[in-house]
Write a structure and sequence with these properties.
The chain has 2 helices and no strands. The termini are far apart. The chain is elongated. It has one domain (5-58). By secondary structure, it is mostly helical.
Length: 60
């Protein structure tokens, strides 16, 4: 059965939204898995870099 135009638009928007949500959830999980196999000092340095970038982004 062929989809209507509205169904197609809904499917595209829904797929995009779910992909963004999936990335938001999976990136921290990926970071934790990679960090568990990495050198703890390297991970600590990386976290400090992220904190500095976040602070500069917020203007603190």
């Amino acid at each position: 059965m062929r989809q209507s135009k509205e169904d197609l638009v809904f499917d595209v928007i829904n797929t995009f939204f779910l992909a963004i949500i999936s990335l938001i959830i999976l990136y921290p999980l990926y970071f934790v898995v990679i960090a568990s196999f990495s050198n703890p000092d390297t991970v600590a340095e990386l976290i400090q870099i992220y904190q500095k970038r976040w602070d500069s982004f917020l203007g603190s």
